[in-house]
Specification:
The structure is a homotetramer of 147-residue chains. Chain A is an alpha+beta fold and 147 residues long. Helix content of chain A is 25%, strand content 35%.
């Protein structure tokens, strides 16, 4: 399988993940082909991303403050089927920081340490009232850079 | 199959439905057993119920006013498997009106007019601020009784 | 709140659960009312039920053998809203054993030990080839009675 | 908003869609932010893609024959929030044909003809028995080229 364009060197890309979220496959997430439906990958990405942001103290800012985050784009590359009963580790990392957005990368491994999916997506900070994209405040920028 | 306790006479119960909502099965709603996952029945009930309430002009009251509705309980009896590609008709009716709640009944038929599921659930009106159950206002009661 | 008809004495009913499954709420399981969508309760029931059956060694029989199980009916009583971030314990028990079916009960508690939902449903053993309901084999009956 | 890399010229790209599938938003597909959860975009893509393949007579080949299709990758660009009650038109087209795969593009518009999402993904033909990617048979290739 070709390496996705958002991954320069797979080895170093993979080693760069330090946060992993454990996710159990729900039976209702399988489909009639017998495996986890491909749309569910993005549910796992979201779950791990939110827990990662909580662990960094970022979510509190967005829940309470005048700004929140929205998803600009999302993508997933499928390498191996996930079955009911699989115990997944979903890695999340901030791959790059823009003026008003961050690029978040994802790595999903099963209990045998086999890579099932990789992915990425852009998260944009917007003003709650207007929906306009908004530059990171200095404090937030510091938290993102330390992540 | 035994008739559920909420249905006295199946023939007249079935004839009493006049509102039906058309629902297309999504592939992601199937599971590894090859049919629509049993938890999805309640998604279809909800969809048809909300559209029914909209058609009666009830939803506007709850979206704008000081009261809203919550689900007290829900149940479903499964009679026939639903497959991807099935075109469903989901019937909804108000079976009885209480002081602060209504009992809503459901009937799901496929494109061959075969009954796939029946169900019911209690919907309770509550005050948005406190969550306390609240008697129907006279105007709403009139709308419910005409339904 | 009135006690559901499937619970005779709430105290002893609740004490009778010995198997609990831990479930984390996914953000995608919330809805626009701000809490977990009511249809998701049945996803949690299913997840805990399957894990319970695995822990009893029952699932292997149904995956490999000539018989499988289907859901006859399902119901849920809602007592308290579940929010994103809640860590749930979902209790499952076999409440009674019939000739071809079992009645399974459910209890959902949050991290503060507050009861969020109770429920029940009938699981029926059927022949895979014909779909006909089938009496429990002696070995299975023994496993169910010990559960 | 920047044009995604898979779209050369937005005007001509958009005009090139001739198949559209109507999709109604389910209430359970919203999340606590008040709009349709971003993971649901891929459910809509899948639904429209499968219906498109059925309309072309392709699905029958994959359901009955020795080959089937799997998702290689998927991506979505979000341009506008989707709300409960929105009536969506989901466009699907085959953007390019490879030796063993096709590139499928997506366009989601609401009832006001506003563009909500665009997307693409690679679909790969594999042998059911081995999972190995498999060149398109001549007959299928003809059907894909006419699409």
């Amino acid at each position: 399988m070709a390496t996705p364009v958002y991954i320069e060197n797979f080895e170093s890309w993979q080693e760069d993940f330090s946060y992993f979220d454990s996710i159990s496959v729900r039976f209702s997430e399988t489909d009639a082909f017998g495996h986890v439906n491909n749309t569910v990958a993005f549910i796992y990405f979201e779950q791990a991303r939110i827990n990662y942001f909580y662990s960094l103290g970022l979510m509190d800012e967005w829940v309470k403050g005048p700004y929140m985050i929205v998803t600009g784009d999302l993508q997933c590359d499928y390498r191996r089927q996930v079955a009911f009963g699989d115990k997944l580790q979903v890695g999340v990392k901030i791959a790059s920081i823009g003026r008003t957005s961050i690029d978040v990368h994802y790595l999903v491994k099963n209990q045998k340490n086999q890579i099932c999916m990789t992915g990425r997506g852009r998260i944009v900070q917007v003003e709650k009232k207007t929906g306009a994209s908004t530059p990171w405040q200095n404090e937030l920028l510091g938290m993102l850079e330390k992540a």
